[in-house]
């Protein structure tokens, strides 16, 4: 009988210890949970500043238009037809004609100097009717812009812009009437301010 009582006593002690350990674990978990979920201070949303875009709608529109133009140019490059015209030696590129894939009309011509295929001397751009609308001239390095001529839809020059040696700073702008006769020339300082205006 004693063995039976001893077994019962051992079972009771085992159960008590099990309950005690379980209780300690539960208390520890509750404390841990409370520590993790600290009460957040209440914030008043009325006094909270609202996030506003730092760019104004005009800047956003300009960025949007710039992205659209880049996409259009990439699509044009993929769909347009290129014709390479060589000099008489059949080795050196004279110019590259870029044709509209639908109309087959020339929309751009990249002209190279006679020495090699790397230096561009000018780029001519044409409207859908095939009339020259813009011509960009480059310095001997083939990268730096020297001047840009712009034309009206009838093919008459309306503007000519000259640049300093950096290819970015405008030196002077000549303006022309619809018949192609120069009517005004404006000279600029390196900082972009007007230096002198000549009216013809």
TrEMBL record:
What are the DUF2963 domain coordinates in residue numbering?
Answer: 78-109, 116-161, 165-193
InterPro entries xref list: DUF2963
List the keywords (alphabetical). Answer: Membrane, Plasmid, Transmembrane, Transmembrane helix
Give the highest taxon in the source lineage: Bacteria
Which residue windows are transmembrane per the record?
A: 12-36
Q: Which Pfam families match?
A: DUF2963
Q: Name the chain's protein.
A: DUF2963 domain-containing protein
């Amino acid at each position: 009988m004693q063995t039976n009582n001893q077994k019962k006593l051992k079972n009771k002690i085992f159960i008590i210890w099990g309950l005690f350990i379980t209780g300690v674990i539960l208390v520890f978990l509750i404390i841990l949970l409370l520590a993790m979920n600290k009460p957040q201070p209440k914030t008043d949303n009325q006094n909270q500043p609202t996030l506003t875009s730092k760019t104004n709608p005009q800047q956003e529109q300009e960025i949007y238009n710039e992205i659209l133009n880049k996409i259009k140019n990439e699509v044009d490059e993929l769909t347009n037809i290129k014709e390479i015209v060589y000099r008489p030696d059949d080795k050196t590129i004279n110019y590259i004609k870029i044709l509209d894939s639908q109309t087959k009309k020339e929309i751009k011509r990249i002209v190279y100097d006679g020495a090699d295929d790397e230096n561009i001397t000018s780029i001519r751009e044409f409207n859908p009717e095939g009339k020259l609308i813009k011509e960009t001239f480059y310095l001997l390095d083939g990268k730096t812009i020297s001047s840009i001529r712009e034309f009206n839809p009838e093919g008459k020059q309306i503007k000519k812009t000259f640049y300093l040696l950096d290819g970015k700073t405008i030196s002077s702008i000549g303006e022309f009437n619809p018949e192609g006769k120069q009517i005004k020339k404006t000279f600029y300082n390196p900082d972009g301010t007007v230096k002198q205006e000549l009216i013809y």
